[in-house]
Each structure stands twice: as structure tokens, then as C-alpha cells.
Amino acid sequence: MRLSPRCVILSVEDSVTSPEPGSLRLKALLPIALLLASSGSPARAAAQAVSAQPSAAATLNDEPITPPSVVYPEEAKKARIQGVVVLEINVSAKGEVIGVRAVSGPEPLRQAAVDAYRHAAYRPLLTDGKPTPAIITTSVNFNLKELPPDTDQKIDAAFEPLHARCQTLSAQNSADAVAACQEALAMANRFSPRFETGVHATAYNDLVLALIAAKRKPEASQLGEEAVSRFVDLNPDVMHHSPAAATAFITRAEIRSLTNNLRGAEKDCLAAEEIIRSLLQNEAEVDKSANYRQQLRETMLLRAAVLDEQHKTSQAKKLREQARYI
Prior knowledge:
Blueprint: E1 6-11, H1 34-39, E2 47-50, E3 58-59, H2 74-78, E4 83-91, E5 97-104, H3 107-118, E6 125-127, E7 130-132, E8 134-143, H4 152-171, H5 177-188, H6 197-213, H7 217-233, H8 236-239, H9 243-257, H10 262-281, H11 286-309, H12 313-324
């Protein structure tokens, strides 16, 4: 079923500033290794206006569960490029986005709009009470009008219950885990770059694990690459030795280890270990040091499992012994 168009208006300041977070919270970087062992081998959407006329037999649910986080491209901002991007969003009967296509709009803005909606989640369209696939047309209006920024504290308050639900449903192997983790990541994408990025990176990791459990490895692979791009490749000088970068490498290692890219998984584990060792060396607080040690052990165990898959049994055994004494 094809639904009537809706519009999202994105207003972005020329220079975005956000207050410092109220407190630094320690986040677990990696819920890893156990899943591998058991397997055996978002700037912001500032305002929204919806225009849709459902048929008599349909219940219309074309509003995303959470507002997609549309990031205004920096080059487009510098060039003062504005305009409306029209998207066609293919939504499954489960409410999951299975395809996004930019129909029209300024070329420098199209990919940002597509990326924002790729991980959106919708309540299923109901026709005669039954879930139905749908194609939703959405317009994203990019403009440079200045608006007060969302504070990271408000976003964090909204993120916490979404994150908790994602992890709870994942632990229960619920069929709703993917949608819940997509919702949490959509909210995390709204954090400013100045916020504690480890929280944001953990949301990527949670969704990758949920996708793996749901046997949706191609999507998990794409998300793993996106995590490394966001937290490592785009900010190499600032991010390369951050907890977020370590989490990104681990996220990609997890899915690579399950898609026969074992050398890539091993390389990602080594990169994560190097970062965590650096963080551990420079951390004076006892609680944080203990957390980093646990994270380092788990990463080493993941690499040992990858070595086993490559029939490097002696190396894997030695690495497990080393992990015991971290």
C-alpha cells in the first residue's frame, strides 16, 4: 500500500553548540564473545508535519516510532545549500525499513536524508486489522534557520529507557529486539559530537547483536562498517583512542567473525585491544580501570575464538591464558 506524503523539516544552526553533559557515566563497551561461542563457529528532526488520508479499511501509522536524526552535511552547510529531499520508504509488514530511495532534491543533501531513515522503525500499517507492507513518501526539508539545539541531557533522558528496553528484549531473544534497538540507536544519533560518544557507540553494538541474533547478517555487516566510519574514519585524530572507537572496532569484529572475514575480525580485535590498553594506562580511577580490564579480557577472548576458527589453536590457547591475568 502506498501512503500519502509526510514532511520532516530540518532546521540547523550554522554553528551548533551544546552544554557539557551533567555527569560522565561509565558504559559497558561490549556484550561480546558469548554470542560468538554459542553460535559455533543521528543535527535533529526539529519539527514534523504529517499529511495523510487513510483508506476506510486501513489504519495509518506513517509516523516513525522516534524522529529520525537527520545530519545536515557540513559541506552543504558551508555552501549554503538548502532544499527539500523527497524519499520513498519501503516498510515491511513488521514495520521495519527494508529500503529507502531519494526521489528528488538537491544532490548534496540526498544521502543524509536516506541515511537518517534507513534505520527508522515504524508501527505496522494495519489493513482490516492485519499488518501490511507499505511505501511511505516523506519530504525532508533542509534549511539553515537557527533553532535552539536539543540538549544532550534531554536526549540522554529519552535514550536511557529505550536502551534498557533494547537490551532487555535482546536478552530474552524477543522478536521485537531489532525494532527496539533501532529505536534506541535513532535516539542516540541525536547526541551532539561533544557528548560521551561511548554511549552512542554502544547503541550501534546493541543493534548489530540484535540483527545477528535475528539472522540478518547483511544488515549487521553494513551497520558495523557504519560504526567504524562514524567513530574512527571520520575523526581519526580525535576519536582513534576513545572508548567509542574501541566499541566500533569490536562491533565490526563481531559481525566479521560470523561472515567468514576472520582476518578482518582479528585485525579489528587487535585495534580495539590497543585502544583499551591505552585507555587503561592513562586511567587513574579504580572503577574505570576495572571496567577497562574486563573489556580487554573479553576482546582478547573474542580474538581467541577467531583464531580457533582459523585453526590457530596454539595461539588461541596462549591468548586465553594471557587474558586470565589481565
